[in-house]
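Write out this protein's structure.
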Amino acid sequence: MIQAVLFDLDGTLADTAPDLGYALNLQRERHGLAPLAQETIRPYASHGTRGLFEIGFGLTPEDARFDPMREEYLELYTANLCRFTQLFPGMAALLKALEERNVHWGVVTNKPARFTNPLLEQLGLIKRAASIISGDTCLHPKPHPEPLLCAAREIGVAPQTCLYVGDAERDIEAARAAGMPALIADYGYLGAADRPETWGAQGRIDTPLGILTFLE
């Protein structure tokens, strides 16, 4: 029986791609480059600055410019953290339904806490979440299982009674390693090269409310 539902943040709980892309285009403008279409940026939004810089500047972490460019980008993103970001359609209704059923919910993301907490505050969720685990809360981020296990401990439930929902392969890998059932958010930021059918999740959902089917 599922006692808690844990969500990835970017591409699962909230549609953060518009602000991630907005900051990337501001940075491109600073460097004399034309803006990219949001549709081009969107599939990279779940992969952090590594993915965004791949599409935005053709940079990898091995490039000497990567770290200073990353700092510049993060400053721009901090200033535009919740300009366009919204919960995915159906997510607000889902969270209400979970709370009415006394099912705990929380967030486990690789996003650093300096962004996670202010963003959830602006979305009106920080006091409602039973656990918030960011990318720098634990020693290891996803795909290591530690963040998911930490959330389960914080909520006070066994890992096998938690359902984890994410839109990236590392999300499902982390859930499997933690002994948690997992669902793939098909409405998230899946890219053309992703093969979610091979990730080993218990199911896939087209809308957040699809999660309720797995709780019955």
